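Lecture notes, unit on protein representations.

Consider one protein chain, 407 amino acids long.
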Amino acid sequence: MPKFKYQGFTKEGKKVDSTIDADTIKDAKKMLRRQNIRVTRITPPSIFEADLGQWMVDKGIARPFGQAELMRFTRQLAILINAGVPILECLEILHKQEQNMVLKRVVKNVSIQVEEGKSLYDSLSSQQGFNKLYCSLVKAGESAGILDSILNKLAEFLEKQQKLKKQVKSALTYPVIVVFVGIIVIFGLMTFVVPQFVGMLKESNQQIPWVTQTVIDVSDFFRNYTLLLIAGMVAGGMFFVNFIKTKEGKTQWDRFTMKAPLFGLLIIKGNLGAFTRTLSTMLAAGVPIIDSLEICIDTLDNTQIAKDLTKVRQAVIEGKSITEPLSRISYFPPLVTQMMKVGESTGNLDSMLVKVADVFQEEVEELVGNLTKLIEPIILVVLGGIIGFVLIAMYLPIFMSAGGVTE
């Protein structure tokens, strides 16, 4: 936030000359009045004193805070509340030490609203970055007087989600790098190496085999239409991104990914794991099951799975147990349904859902490991085969000439 310089007097009549963080002069004056300071002069920061990071935030250039920052904030807030620190003081402490400019500003805004008498739930709900799940759990924690416990559960939930995302990301990093390097090598062969062989073949006046001619034709296409290919890929990528942002496009893409040969099972189990873990967290916080299901559905990434679980919620509203409609979903494992049925009958559904979520997470981790082991050799064989084919096609006329073979 910008630092405003001000001069004024305290209620005891003592003169003060200091600075205050605020979004606008109006906010700065309001904050100073709360501190019982009568302002005589207030000066906004000059362009040389402006905070570059804050300017980037205001212009939308700086990235918003992510799950890692949210997890850290939640964990620290839980520790401070558990230590008996008043909520307003907790927010002020976290605001001072926060490095992420977006989150720093959000915490300041929440602090101002709490100081005005609003609940933490209402204050967080008015800010971007705190989803419906987060705010609902905070509301449940405030009403039950167990806010520190709920925040700890939230931090654990976010930590497990972050861990899973990192595992998937790290597993796919190596194959993506190999594919990228392979594409560059193939492009280099086609645009720089193959033309050198073409010159040698033309000088020898030797008839070119069809395999070699095919590679030469592909090379000519690459050289003549490189810019067009790049423009086409960029345009295609932009079209695809805009398409999956639409409701119909997102639905079609989600259905396709669920049926994908290698990644379909990973996507299904990942979403079901997120659903069961979210539901267990909500139920453990005392949120009614119908409200919990609604929040869980809102937090899912896959629209098809969310649509199927909406039918489950409707069945629960009609008085059915949660396991009955879940058993009718083809991709929902029967063993998991039975585990949930046992938890529902014993009144320990939230505890059983934690175990179910752990099972899904273990299966996802195993799938990620297996996919990595499977994808890497496939990529290497395909890229190696393409490069080998190009080299053989180029050297084939030379081998034929050396062996005295003519056509």
